Write the structure tokens for this entry.
Amino acid sequence: MSAEFILETQGLTKEFKGFVAVSDVDLKVQRGHIHALIGPNGAGKTTFFNLLTKFLHPTSGRIVYNDIDITAEQPAQTARRGIVRSFQISAVFPHMTVLENVRAALQRNLGTSFHFWKAEKTLFPLHERAHQLLAEVDLESFADTMTVELPYGRKRALELATTLALEPELMLLDEPTQGMGHEDVHRVTELIRKVAANRTILMVEHNMNVVASIANRITVLQRGTIIADGPYAEVSKNPLVIEAYMGTTDTTLKGAHA
């Protein structure tokens, strides 16, 4: 695999008792790009993410990351390589402050998560980095706020900060704007654009306006199979893609939601 590509899947397939959820998927993710994975409900997007993060093992095929075959690795091994997933449902601690959430993620990255007997003052060296991460996602003014009190969009921004704390080389974002109003969608979209600097992002996203505005490349799944791959301008005009989303070839994809 060329150094141009950080991740490649080769013939990746997952079957569940005869049902093929992901079928012979060949995907290449270019280093430094924002790559969107889209498709109608049930297309196999989440199963594909679960294969990449080792929550599922493939029936056949290979996963190559930075020229290393990681297909048989355990989830923790893959995470240590720098593949970090942000989940569809906000994964933060509601009864900790915003700063404490980021500090906990930094502590996990140090491998000291279970050193509960250590004095809190031993965590103070992490504060500077935690504040830097909060600034990166425009949350510095919320540092002392209890997370449960944050608006939904800000919680997703906090989740981005805790993901960044793990120093990912490849970020897997699972529905980052799901359930948001227009203002929050715009804010989080701009944050993704901002944190993508010096990183690669593979994202599952239903909102086509988000995909059109920030994705360098788009791969479309339908029934577990790739039906289109390329830039938005090209993919959005593909008759197979339009039919998959709209059930007709008489319209365009723009503005459609899966």
User: Anything to note?
Assistant: Residues 248-252 have pLDDT under 50 and may be disordered. The two ends are 32 Å apart (CA to CA).
